[in-house]
Specification:
472 residues; alpha/beta; FAD/NAD(P)-binding domain; 7-stranded mixed β-sheet; 18 helices; 16 strands; 38% helix
Amino acid sequence: MSSVAVIGAGTNGLSAACVAARAGLDVTVYEANDTIGGAARTGPLAGSDAVFDLGSAVHPMAMLSEAFHALRVHERVDFLVPELSYAHVAGDHTAYAWHDLQATLDYLPKTEAVVYERIIRPLVQRIDSLGDTLLNPLLGLPRHPVTLAAFGASTVAGMGLLQGWPGRYPHAAALLAGCAAHVAGGSRGPAGTGAGLFLAAAAHGAGWAIPRGGSQAISDALASELHENGGRIETGRRIEDLRELDQEVFLLDTSPETAAVLGAGRIPDTLQRRLAAPRRSPGSCVVHYVLDGPVPWRDPVVAQAGTVHLGGDARQVLAAERSSRHRAAAEPFVLVAQPSQFDSSRSAQGHHVLWAYCHVPLGSNQDMSRRITAQLEAAAPGFRDLVREEYVRTATDLERQNAALVGGDISGGTMDLIGSVLRPRLSPSPWWLQGPGMYLVSSAVPPGPSVHGMGGYRGAQHMLAREFGIGR
């Protein structure tokens, strides 16, 4: 039986392993940490009784992921989809992105509702084909040309809203700016706006899902699928040289830098140099809170949101994001997840778990907890008095926690237009590293970041066709 080694047990690595094992190959996954999951891990911190998502907490792409459908993640995980996907708090004003688009439009001022609907409805109506388009490499013949054309038109209109008329349509602009700011660095180009539109469309289409029990449930579901198909996982096993292994085919769910080291002598020198020095996004600083009660939001409707955006109007949000490339903003844009509002298993004895982060310069060790808490206190007076426990993970801490998050960059590299296409090279088959049996299947390849498993899923399918003629 042919054998395959998967380096890294994040959702991409596990998805790739499942595809290979289902094809009848002998698959072993090697994970340096003691637990699997990468950016989809859940566990305790410093002996707390609470359950924390150590990476991502809310998953906008989970319900759209072909990989999660095909690999039976949706059968094994109870995904909770809040009716209020996200709320954007800007001073005394709040914009709401309900799962139901019409409810969102009803909350917006009439003139803003017209603009927002024209931009977002064509994408929501095509959310399945949009997901199929954007969660696959864009090079080659388009899978859904009408959807791609609609997406292009909405992206142009979205750029006009954010850069031309944010003051005239403040609520609509804030809803889009908050989603665009998930992509670190405040890009003004089509890639950042397009990514924000995709997230916003998902909020109204499939919804932003919260897995019951924490993000670990996704990783455990993939591990179950792998084990059912005969695959194995070895945790606490850091691979520093591929000569340690007997396999001849390698699927790397790693950073490009690690792929460059492991691929030495196996991949072309030009590609190795590019992998060793990728274009990087800013890092992140995460704060995990345990609270003595629910967040006392000034606007009580915000309590219904799975995700909350804090940081002012559209201009302020994008300015804070652009500054994060070089210095931490005094009033950063903060992304907040409140999973215990929907999943009581996260914390015992009536306590609540809150997860918040902001972007900081790459590799920063700056503790942003005071600034993040200040943003929360401004939107929820009395928040500080409820804080029972607080755990900070700086950008450098994130890399120590997960080696794939180089400098705390959770995007796998810059997600501007160039970074989206050269990921890591311009090719309809970007996973193959142009060396015998060498494939990169992490968030550093298309379709990029977010917990959806598609990089590993498509990379493994390409590997099967190229190496074994399976599915060609």
